[in-house]
């Protein structure tokens, strides 16, 4: 195996370990030592790539952004119409299965850490603004006759609802089964007049 391939494999293993520690053990246990243990490597190897906890958090947030960005782009491009695209991308942001539950936990952990950290909060704001712009664009495409203010309000309400549900479901999956989460999404879309439009 070439050195570049070996470095790439190491990088992927470290990424998985960062994600695993944050999603399974929580923010308070995300340390260089915990990532090294999860990756089965030395702390020196982890510190070569992630010199501190902030670097670990930034990596986890960027990995989450890239993972979800690729997923929503695929969902949007394969949707039958703007309403279907809007529902699909909002749905994927909920905690419907183990993968999306872990993503919600990582997102919440990053947000908790970002509140008091300038670099982390800027990363959070940048990614959330991109998400809001995408949802606004889809709402506008689904309801082209709406004013920009109505589009912005509906998009923000839908984002708040889906991210709130994801947070609750991540913490208590039994109380928020996937079918109920999807029913809540459909009710929210219907309440905003965004269900069944074509």
List keywords for this structure.
198 residues, disordered N terminus
Topology at a glance:
Elements: H1 3-25, H2 32-39, H3 43-49, H4 53-78, H5 82-92, H6 98-114, H7 118-142, H8 148-171, H9 178-191
Helix pairs in contact: 1-2, 1-4, 1-6, 2-3, 4-5, 4-6, 4-7, 5-7, 6-7, 6-8, 7-8, 8-9
Describe this structure in words.
The chain has helices at 3-25, 32-39, 43-49, 53-78, 82-92, 98-114, 118-142, 148-171, 178-191. The radius of gyration is 19 Å and the shape is elongated. The longest helix is centred in the N-terminal third of the chain and has 26 residues, at 53-78. The chain is an all-alpha fold and 198 residues long. α2 crosses α3 (43-49) and α4 (53-78) packs antiparallel against α5. Residues 1-5 have low confidence and may be disordered. The protein has nine helices and no strands.
Summarize the structure.
Helices cover 78% and strands 0% of the residues.
Query: Hey, roughly how much beta strand do the residues contain?
Result: under 5%
Q: How widely separated are the two ends?
A: 52 Å
- The shape, in one word, is elongated
Taking all Cα atoms into account, the compactness measure Rg is 19 Å
The number of helical elements comes to 9
Largest sheet properties: none
How many beta strands in the DSSP annotation?
0
**Uncertain regions: pLDDT < 50 for 5+ in a row?**
1-5
